[in-house]
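help with this.
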Amino acid sequence: MKHTINAIQFFFIGILFLTFFTVSCAKSEDAASVEPQARSEVMLGTVSRITIYDNPSDAAFSDAFARIADIEARMSIHIDTSEIAAVNAAAGAGPVAVSEDTFLVIQRAIEAAEASHGAFDPTVGPLVAAWDIGGDNPRRPPQEEIDRLLPLIGYRRVVLDADAQTVELLDPGMKLDLGGIAKGYAADEVAKILLSHDVRKAIINLGGNVLTIGTRVDGTPWRIGIQNPEEERGGHVMIVGLEDRTLVTSGPYERFLELDGVIYHHILDTVTGYPVQTDITSASIITEESLFADALSTAVYSLGLEEGFALIESLPGVEAVFMDTGYNLYLTEGMRDGSFSYQITNQAYTVTDLH
């Protein structure tokens, strides 16, 4: 059994090109600008890095990382004292009061599940725990175990009471897992913290979940690379110009295990209980809210190219880049019409019309 490409490795791969296209350009184009400062912490199961290009301060960094720590303490399925752990422990036994943070994220997760017809489903927890891909004991569960767990997956069996701010899982054994959305929420909250400290130019990178604040020091958009899904040690397929936007990518290369020559990735099909089968190798979402992008990237990867593309085209203010096994790039309308600048850096890939 071989478990490769963990989130920390993926993070540092991304930082190599982020540094090249931001720090070096900032220094060369505006020598009088404030020296950028970056700090990293291991949080949310990955390396979380914040880089500030104007008005950096200890208070800004401290408050930002404290906010991430607070979100992790409330929402991590791996922390026994978290609010999510309490909700899961009470499955089938009644509602549990949670904080405003946790209630909001669960509420938005349910909305994403509705929009994607369950392709993204925060109740996937029992299957995630059974496979444990990315954990300490990854395994392929026997079919009888998967068959037993599948009836526990169903976002419609989550009851939210906004007045009492409670969450209830109706069936014993159900488990919420916010791993597909909590990093996005944390990135949005960090942006609010930085703005409150008068930071207007920054990059927040939570394990490859990237959110940009403002522009580069020369006023041009940040140049953010989209990972090549076939390269374990770095490299990107294209670079996108972003200003006050987030870019979140999902793909099978992020976390997987290899067993008897078969590769099983971490994005699970909520119908079959097995990793999603698709020709898509990468799905990247570009929008203003990282929380929404986080959930959407998983959803559209699970839906597949046709349905995923149609979903993104139906959502205002959201764009996407899809890659497939044939080295095709599929761009939504806002990417094709020039709303966002981009540069293809790997000539093996070509832009292809969906139809």
